[in-house]
Structures are given as structure tokens and as C-alpha cells.
Amino acid sequence: MFFDAHFHLIDCITRNCFSFDKNWNGCASFCSKDEFNFYKSLLTPDCSGGEASAFGTAGYQATKSRFLEGFGSNLKISFGIHPLILNMNEADFLQKIVEEKQIDAIGEAGFDFFTENAKATEDFQIKAWEFQLDLAINHNLPLIVHCRKANHKLFEYSKKLKNVKAVLFHSFMGTSTEALSLKSRGINAFFSFGKQILNNNKKVLDCAKNLPLDCLLWETDAPYQTLKNQQNTFSSEIFDVYKAAWNLRSDEVDFDNFVNLAEKNFKRVFD
Question: Distance from CA of residue 96 to its chain's centroid?
Fold first, then answer.
């Protein structure tokens, strides 16, 4: 079984990028109430599908049937207030579904200073981050972290992060030295990487090659994180990510054990 540590289910479905292959599973990420309710409607066989109309999804009932048959409630689910979509109106909803145990993790949460406009929202990002960090600690849930051009903020919060059940640094863009430094601070840290491996990103290759295998997961971030001249990433591309990642470690472990280890790591985060 191949596990995709991070993808966007609703955007994959509406862009026709979702694979119904039963050989993979993973964690679907949501950042709005509407997206989450659409997902819940997929789990309800007798639902009219009204939630889908706002997304313009063709063949909604067929999609629902295939989803129920192939996945149902087996996916792990995360919900978070994304640092680039700072809608604190979702905070009450997030609190509610956490208390009702409807999700398996909190996130994406974190910091994004990739552009000057994004960096200008730092105060709002801190507010959203601290709310979600406390929620993860208080409810013993994993935290999925999005961080671009802001790794220093992770170290500022390292004392609190070590109180989180598990911290998954999704699409980590730091160095292997930074990753090991986070782990050395007592954080139960995991790092996931996607198609940057296929794009020969030097930092990602360094991490994928040199970090301990027991803290690594793999992802697509589908339908995002595309390669040059690609419009979308398909969830089925998780197989390509696994193969590229294994090629970096093939002198240490055979492919089957590499896949099995990633599955164990996934379950250590989410189970």
C-alpha cells in the first residue's frame, strides 16, 4: 500500500485528478467548511449531492459511488487554517469538528513568507498558528505544518512543538541539518516530500537521501506542486514519488521494505 501524506481531495476531484486506485491511501487536507462538507457528502450514499453543485462537479453520483467503494472513511483527514488563506471564521468550525472527533489531524497550519504580501500578514499568521498549535496539543492530534521562507518561526515554537503528538512538516523546504535540529529539540518530527524530488531540488534531495528513514513520508500535494509545463498533479503520481525517493536509498533497503517503512511512518503519525 502506498500512502500519500498530503493531498487536496476536493480540488483533485473537481479537476479530475483523483485516482481511485485501491493500492494507495493517505491524508486528505481541507481548509474550508464547504470543502469538508463536500467530503462528508461523499460518504453518505443517500445524499442528494447538493453540496457538489457549487463545485460544478460532473458525474457527482458516479464519483460518490467510486469513492465509497474504493476509500470510504479509510482516508485520514486533516483540517486547518492555511497561512495563505487566513480565514479565522473557520476557527469555530475547526474547534467543533475536533471536539466531535471528525478529523485525524490539524493542518495545514504554519507560516508562509514567500512573497512580501504574504509576509505582511505575519501577525495574522501567528494568531492562526497559535490557535491551531494549542488545539493540537490539547486534543492530542498530529499537526501538519506548511512553512515557506519562515523556518526560523519553527525554531521559535520548538518548545511547544515537542508537546504535539506528532508533527508532519509537509513538503519540507529546509536543509537536512535544520530537520535534524528540529528532531534534536524533542519534537516527534516527520518530514514529507513530493515532486520536488523529480525536479531535482537540492535541499529536498539532501533530506530524502540523508534523513533517517524512520521519519520520512512521501506526498503529492495534488493537484498542486506541479512540474514544468504541468497544469495539475494527479494523485496517482504518488507512485512516481516513491520510486524516485527509493532510488536515492536503494543501496540501503529494497523497494518493498521501503514502501512498508513509509506505511509504518504514516501510521505512527496518524494512528
Answer: 21
Q: How confident is the model at residue 173 (pLDDT cuts 50, 70, 90)?
A: very high
pLDDT digits (tens, 9 = 90+) for 82-139: 999 999 999 999 999 999 999 999 999 999 999 999 999 999 999 999 999 999 999 9
CB-based contact 221:6 (threshold 8 Å): yes
Number of domains in the chain: 1
204 lies in a domain?
A: yes
Write down the residue that cell numbers 469538528 correspond to: 97
Among 253, 240, 242, 171, residue whose Cα is nearest residue 212? 253
CATH number at residue 163: 3.20.20.140
* CA–CA distance, 13 with 60 (Å, rounded to integer): 10
The C-alpha cell that represents 175 in the structure block: 536543509
pTM: 0.94
Domain membership flag for residue 43: no
% of the chain beyond a pLDDT of 70? 94
Locate 251 and state its grid cell.
543501496
Residue 188 lies in domain: 2-27+75-270
